[in-house]
Design brief:
about 180 residues; mainly alpha; two-stranded antiparallel ribbon; 8 helices; globular
Amino acid sequence: MSTHSAIRRITFNALMLALLCLVGMFSIPLGDNIKVSLQLLMVFIICLTARSFVDALIVTGCYLLIGLFAPVYAGFASGISPTFGYVISFVAISPIIYFMNKIPKLPSVVRMGLACLTGLLVCYVIGTAFMMLYLGLAKDVHWDLGKTLLVSVVPYIPFDLAKIVLAVSIVKLIPASLLEAKR
């Protein structure tokens, strides 16, 4: 890899991390304990445009680490909370989305949509499991799967599906020359 290529790659990753930190802080309260943020939208965009799965892992991993100490999570939060499992899942879904987006012989919109949908399902599994564990240990309260899903997944499904549509639309709008220029 040439020096010029390495600089472009590092710059692109830094820009994606900065956007994730910036966008991730803001959330829209929609009711009792329901906040919608655009963290997942940015994770989808990062994974769909990353040069390699390692780049996606680096960006999402750095976001996780920064958020442990700086208020870059939804609602200007930081540290470990009941929803921290969803942030952990951003790192886990990065290679899944990246590699699924490389499946040949599928139209790009379908490929990207399926990759993000699969990533979303894995995000729900990891986030829900962490929330059940966290609340069970921290609050000494037994949270069953049904109750946890009703609180942490069900209200967000329409918003998360809209984020997939928006992410695919945004990535499709990015000129190919811009995406190729970073390679």
